[in-house]
Design brief:
Alpha-Beta Plaits, alpha+beta, binds magnesium ion, NDK-like_dom_sf
């Protein structure tokens, strides 16, 4: 089953949004495969956002994501990568539709509450960056037969 990397950013943690965000993915029907509260070391932040290294906001981005704890997760389910992106809403909260996480809770692009992998390749890369194999749990859930 497809897996994606989702992270409540430092603003979301400070604003008490971990529970709501976990709840949205749970209610949708996705399965939690791993989760942890953590501080991101600078080197990990730079690697995670490596694709933005040349962008003018890169320094700010790394400073922000290391400014406080994040809640890192792996969620599993059919089409979870693309569906999670839809649930998050557009990168700029001003363009994110109401009902999406960024649309409901964000105002500025710098503090947009949540990260989610944007492709199968980035999902695999980001899951491996943030989680050791033994931190991911493989288990059955009884709701599967009512979802699939
Ligand atoms: P996303 O997080 O939706 O995948 P992205 O990968 O393009 O968006 O950018 C990563 C993060 O960088 C984004 O969540 C917020 C920040 N960012 C993006 N564009 C920005 C901009 N123009 N100014 C400031 N920060 C920006
Ligand atoms: Mg991105």
């Amino acid at each position: 089953m497809e897996k994606t990397f989702i992270m409540v950013k430092p603003d979301g943690v400070q604003r008490n949004l971990i529970g709501d965000i976990v709840s949205r993915f749970e209610k949708k029907g996705f399965k939690l495969a791993g989760g942890k509260l953590m501080s991101i070391p600078n080197a990990l932040a730079e690697e995670h956002y490596g694709e933005h290294k040349e962008r003018p906001f890169f320094g700010e981005l790394v400073d922000f994501i290391t400014s406080g704890p994040v809640f890192a997760m792996v969620w599993e389910g059919e089409n979870v990568i693309a569906t999670a992106r839809q649930m998050m809403g557009a990168t700029k909260p001003a363009e994110a539709l109401p009902g999406t996480i960024r649309g409901d809770y964000g105002i500025t692009v710098g503090k947009n509450v949540i990260h989610g992998s944007d492709s199968p390749e980035s999902a695999e890369r980001e899951i491996n960056l943030f989680f050791d194999k033994e931190e991911l749990v493989d288990y059955d859930k009884n709701d599967a037969s009512w979802l699939y």
